[in-house]
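Appendix B. Chain record.
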Amino acid sequence: MPDYALVADIGGTKIRVARVSAAGRISHRFETSTPRAGGTAVVDATLRLLRQVPWENVRAVGIDVPGLAYGNGDVWAPNIRGWKRMPLGRRLREQLRLPVVVDSDRNAFVVGEAWKGAARGCRDVIFLAVGTGIGAGIIADGRLLRGHGELAGSVGWMAVRDDFLPAYKKTGCLESHAAGPGIAIAASRRMKRTLPAEDITQLAIQGDQRAQEVLSQAGTYLGMCLANLVSTLNPEVIVLGGGVAEAGELVLKTARRTMMRWAQPIAVRQTRLVCSKLGGAASLLGIARLAFEEASRQTPPARRV
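C-alpha cells predicted for this chain:
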C-alpha cells in the first residue's frame, strides 16, 4: 500500500484539505470557509476537515499558511484574526499524533511546481505569486531559501519606484502597484470608477484602452521585480501564479519586455518565464512533499540484526 500525507491549505477566506500519495496523486479534497473569528476557531475547523479524509497509511501532515511559519510551527498570518504567534504546529501534533510540518504557502507553491509542475526537476526556481498580495517561494541549488527570520521571498516590498508613498509602509512598494488591490486603485483613478482587478482584466480583454493601460503599468512594475530576481538569483525558471498572473499576456507581455530590458543580460537569457501548470494544486503537492521529507527524517533507522 502507498504512503500518504494529509495536507491543508489555510487561507484568509477558505481552508482546503486533501490526501496526497507519495507519488503525488491528490484525492479526497474538501474545503470550508475560514472562520471569521480567527484564533483557535481556524485550528478547530482545519482539524474537523482533516478528519473527513481517510487516514489509512498516513505518514505525516502538512499545513501551509498565508504568512510566516517559524521552525517550531508557530504562525503569523496577518489576514487571520489572532494569528500573531499561533502555535499551530504544537496544537496539531497534540491532536493528530503524527509528524506535522507547517510552512508558508509561497514555499509550498515553489516546492510543488519543482516536484510535479512547470519547474519539474529544476534546482534553481522562483515561484512568484501575484494576487491579493505578492510573494515568492525560492529554491536555490535544490534548497528552499528561507532567510534569517523566514522572511526571504517578501518581494511585495521590493522597491520599484524612487518616491516613497505612505501606502508602502503597510503593503510595500511593488505590492501597492502590481497586486490586485493596487491595480484596482490605479484603475479607479484612471477610469473614474471602482472595479476589482478581475473586472479590469475582463474590460481589457474586451478592448477597453484604459483598462489595458492599467494592466500594462502593473506589468512594468512586475517586470522590474522579475529583472531584480533574475539578476540577484540567476534562476533556471520563474513560475508565475495567482489571480493577476491569470490576466495572461495583458500583463505578461509588458512584464517580459521590461524584464529583458533591465535584467543582467546573460542571466536573463538563461531564465525561462512560465505560468503555473498546477494552479492551486501546487501548494497541496508542495506541502505534502515537505511532510514526506519530515516523516522520513523522524523515521528511526532500521536496527541491525
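Further analysis of this model is presented in Appendix C.
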